[in-house]
């Protein structure tokens, strides 16, 4: 079951109706039980009882780890924390990376092949990181969640279990202690949730799915004779937009569904392709993942290295190379592998790690700031290079794609050959490159760069947890504001209706595979 499946469009109103009946006086154990059961149904619908059982086993184990950590102190607590984190990492490694690791092992040994787990656990990367963060928080504050029901509701909560956002337990549980405001709050939450859901559905079904056709054809054409300079560039630009609208659409829908239940999730996406540096890009792309890796990988490494270098009296550049560059490369290498089991994902992470290191080195060396247009182009080129590794099935395919990006084989779209017949190179049509494909790329970037994002539109209604309006999300219509009026209701209805027009096939969000 996905947010855009027919089953979900029946499932959601039923659960919402039951939720509203059980929360007339506020959130109760019965209403939390309802969410836990609904989330279990959502997860097991397309992934089977076996997958749900494994998720529940992971949640029960970490619930127990949390109580154990909370009841311990000193060195014993630290040892239990380390052991529980290691257990989560091994769980993740077995179900996500076993085939990849076994393949490497078989390449360097003469041992006969053996089987690896065939089950795919939806959202394993997300709920595993959430549970690690929960254990770290318990270790810091010594206050584990005592209610098993509350903890299961937190881990299984269906608007976020499939592809995030990664929600810290303090952000989730803290919302249940707030005063219930009654029907006024319920009506506002429902209106905001529906608007976010409709805008997200439009991004996914109308924009991402249509733009993605050119990207899919381009990557499928790698190695074929008709793969050209134009098809490569249209392909990577299309994939950048496809992933952008797919993931941002999912994030809007996730926030929207949670908000319908009166629960605010943290912002996870904020117009990253408007950034003028790679640092700014990561402040807007997968924000909760960036927060987790910064808190739990980058900061601990950087702090320890900085302290050691200060004791030795290291110089500024030496300090930077050791205490900033190394933690950045390690963090993004882990981030790349977190996205998927493959060398191409490691290279995806390292491209960003190297780019961020260069970006920070430029500032450390006090070089002049680049003009925004140049900074934007460099950011976009770096992101697109990384996305080639992200999308290609393996490194060899990625290399072939890069060759296409610098190829002298220029192939023009249908209808343009009379205009460019005087230019050198082969003139004709290539699969996937047409005037429509180019038009979608142009339209996509106009939307990305000029229009306000949905969360900025709803900025007066706190669309996400602790939301702060960022001018980056405004576009050229900074004064435009969503409000619960008939006109905006019709706008949301039109977005949803137009989106459902394209819902003729099963659609899966790209980040579901992670």
Notes on the protein architecture:
- This protein is mainly alpha-helical.
- Among the domains are: 6-20 and 28-178, no CATH class; 182-273 and 434-514, no CATH class.
- The protein is 67% helix and 0% strand.
- The chain contains 18 helices and no strands.
- The longest helix is centred in the first third of the chain and has 42 residues, at 29-70.
- It is globular and about 65 Å long.
- 40% of the residues are buried.
- Residues 412-432 have low confidence and may be disordered.
What is the number of beta strands?
0
User: Which structural class matches the secondary elements?
Assistant: mainly alpha
Shape: globular
Helix and strand sequence: HHHHHHHHHHHHHHHHHH
Biggest sheet, open or closed, and with what strands and sense? Answer: none
**How many distinct helices?**
18
Gap between N and C termini: 16 Å
Strand content: under 5%
Mean pLDDT: 87
What fraction, in percent, of the residue positions are helical? 55-70%
Q: What's the gyration radius in Å?
A: 24 Å
| Poorly predicted regions | 412-432
């Amino acid at each position: 079951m996905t947010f855009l499946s027919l089953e979900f469009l029946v499932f959601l109103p039923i659960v919402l109706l039951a939720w509203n009946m059980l929360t007339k006086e506020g959130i109760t154990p019965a209403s939390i039980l309802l969410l836990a059961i609904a989330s279990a149904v959502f997860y097991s619908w397309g992934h089977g009882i076996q997958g749900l059982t494994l998720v529940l086993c992971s949640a029960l184990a970490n619930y127990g780890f949390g109580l154990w950590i909370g009841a311990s102190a000193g060195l014993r607590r630290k040892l239990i924390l380390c052991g529980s984190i290691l257990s989560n990492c091994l769980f993740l490694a077995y179900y996500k990376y076993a085939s990849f690791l076994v393949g490497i092992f078989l390449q360097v040994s003469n041992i006969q092949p053996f089987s690896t787990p065939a089950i795919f656990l939806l959202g394993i990367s997300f709920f595993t990181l959430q549970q690690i963060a929960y254990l770290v928080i318990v270790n810091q504050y010594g206050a584990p969640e005592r209610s098993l029901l509350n903890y299961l509701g937190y881990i299984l909560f269906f608007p976020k279990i499939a592809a995030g956002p990664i929600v810290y337990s303090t952000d989730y549980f803290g919302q249940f202690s707030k005063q219930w405001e009654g029907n006024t709050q319920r009506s506002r939450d429902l209106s905001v949730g529906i608007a976010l859901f409709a805008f997200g559905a439009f991004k996914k079904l109308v924009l991402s799915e249509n733009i993605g056709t050119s990207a899919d054809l381009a990557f499928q054409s790698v190695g074929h004779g008709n793969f050209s300079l134009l098809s490569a560039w249209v392909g990577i630009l299309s994939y950048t937009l496809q992933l952008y609208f797919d993931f941002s659409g999912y994030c809007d829908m996730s926030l929207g569904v949670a908000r319908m239940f009166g629960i605010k999730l943290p912002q996870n996406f904020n117009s990253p392709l408007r950034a003028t540096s790679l640092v700014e890009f990561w402040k807007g792309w997968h924000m909760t993942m960036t927060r987790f890796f910064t808190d739990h990988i980058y900061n601990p490494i950087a702090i320890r290295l900085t302290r050691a270098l200060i004791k030795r009296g290291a110089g500024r550049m030496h300090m930077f190379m050791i205490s900033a560059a190394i933690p950045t490369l390690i963090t993004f290498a882990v981030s790349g592998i977190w996205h998927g089991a493959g060398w191409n994902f490691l290279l995806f992470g390292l491209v960003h790690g190297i780019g961020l290191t260069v970006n920070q080195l430029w500032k450390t060396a006090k070089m002049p700031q680049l003009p925004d247009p140049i900074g934007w182009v460099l950011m976009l080129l770096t992101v697109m290079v990384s996305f080639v590794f992200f999308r290609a099935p393996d490194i060899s395919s990625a290399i072939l794609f890069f060759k296409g990006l610098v190829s002298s084989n220029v192939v023009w779209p249908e209808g343009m050959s009379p205009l460019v017949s005087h230019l050198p190179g082969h003139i004709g049509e290539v699969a996937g490159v047409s005037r429509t494909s180019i038009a979608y790329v142009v339209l996509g970037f106009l939307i990305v760069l000029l229009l306000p994002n949905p969360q900025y539109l709803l900025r007066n209604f706190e669309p996400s947890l602790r939301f702060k309006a960022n001018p980056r999300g405004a576009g050229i219509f900074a004064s435009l504001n969503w409000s619960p009026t008939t006109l905006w209701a019709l706008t949301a209805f039109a977005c949803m209706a137009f989106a459902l027009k394209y819902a003729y096939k099963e659609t899966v969000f790209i980040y579901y595979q992670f």
